Amino acid sequence: VSPTADVYPKRIMEYIEGFLISKTLFTSCELGVFELLLGSERSLSAAEISQAVGASLDGTERLLAACTGMQLLNRHQDDGKVSYSNTEQARLFLTRSSPLSLYQSIHYHSKTIYLCWHYLTDAVREGRTQYEKAFGVSSGDLFEAIYRSDEEMVKFMQLMHSIWNICGKDVVTAFDLSPFKVICDLGGCSGALAKHCTSAYPECTVTIFDLPKVVHMSKEHFIKEDDQRISFHEGDFFKDSLPEAELYILARILHDWTDERCVELLQRIYKACKPGGAVLVVEALLSEDGSGPLTAQLYSLNMLVQTEGRERTDVQYAALLTAAGFTNIRHCLTGKIYDAVLGHKKA
Ligand code: SAM
Questions:
Q1: Mean per-residue pLDDT for 72-80?
Q2: DSSP per residue over 180-221, as a string?
Q3: What distances in angstroms separate CA 23 from CA 27, 37, 63, one per listed residue?
Q4: Is 255 designated active site?
Q5: Is the Cβ atom of 252 under 6 angstroms away from ligand 1?
Q6: Catalytic pick among 196, 255, 331, 344
Q7: Can you tell me the distance from the alpha carbon of 269 to that of 22, in angstroms, rounded to the nearest whole number?
Q8: Domains defined along the chain, listed by start
Q9: Which residues are bridge partners to 248 per DSSP?
Q10: How does the average pLDDT of the chain come out, rounded?
């Protein structure tokens, strides 16, 4: 192509500027713009918004204009006066109190993931996590680094929790899990998927297994009400004995670890699992030739920056499950971010 040819690299321009879009979203959430508009009975002017969120008028005007361009805000003009209101998408997904809120996910992306990705080039060069550079914490023990303070632990748990607001039901109903009455969610974190299980399957009970400090935090901040069908078990799934169950859930667990660690964990599960039981792996599946979906490819880079693991294809998960003894392995693509793989232990 000659330099004068009429070509415009639209996609590449979008890639160059992609982080500007993310940061505009992060800042609007951090300043509380969508929250303010949710609580207001009428649309608000830039001056009212800037005053309420404690920001400069000029900066706020530009931010609101960009949010309008991103279709997160509606712009109204009445008698020459300009005002703003939330779009339906902003109201549903960007306000804290919405049942479909992604606010906590946005917060973690802004405050943690974005900072780690500053070192993506180093991560690719070195083939390892960048926690040490980004936060000055040793990544010797992965979750010691992620949970470097109670505040960070709650933020991580909120991140884990919030995605299930939009796709939790899809992953627990990808397969009919009703034959399994005793379920153990290993690394069950905030209990979001446990709740989706008890809603979808009225006869099951779920034990949330996680590190002691995570269980304490989950009881304090996430599963406060007395739910008779959800219980907790504190432990280290690499060291402590696992409770006997008919179904084990491993949601976003295997992607944190190397193949060797995954097989070690799956073998421990296989031993504890009742004959005729199963394991449900919930992950963002890469397509067979690794050519997509882009989200899973980017998540795999994120796993490189932040963990010891990677995203995998269904065949790669099947190989790990087979190595641990599981048979009759099937997978189901949900059409959303996370998919499901089910492996069985012979009766
Ligand atoms: N399953 C949850 C979900 O998908 O929302 C959380 C996934 S999070 C990436 C990994 C979880 O594994 C965290 O809750 C973490 O505390 C837990 N975990 C990490 N190492 C563990 C260990 N050795 N024993 C038990 N739980 C562990």
A1: 96
A2: --EEEEET-TTSHHHHHHHHH-TT-EEEEEE-HHHHHHHHHH
A3: 6, 20, 10
A4: yes
A5: yes
A6: 255
A7: 39
A8: 10-93 (1.10.10.10), 168-344 (3.40.50.150)
A9: 184, 279
A10: 95
Compute the distance between CA of residue 243 and CA of residue 230 in angstroms, rounded to an integer: 14
Q: Which DSSP category does 136 fall into?
A: S
Q: Which amino acid is at 336?
A: K
From the CA of 164, give the closest atom in ligand 1: 5
Residue pair 293/196 in contact by the 8 Å Cβ criterion: no
Cα-Cα end-to-end distance for the chain: 64
Atom 23, ligand 1: which residue's CA is nearest?
236
Report angle CA 338, 340, 345 to the nearest 5 degrees: 155
Question: Which tokens hold the place of 106?
Answer: 């946005």
pLDDT in tens, 141-173: 899 989 999 999 999 999 999 999 999 999 999
Name every residue whose Cβ is closer than 8 Å to that of residue 268 and which is 6 or more positions away in sequence: 237, 238, 242
Predicted TM-score (pTM) of the model is 0.94
Does the CB atom of residue 237 touch ligand 1 within 6 A? yes
* Strand pairing report for 73-78 and 81-86: antiparallel
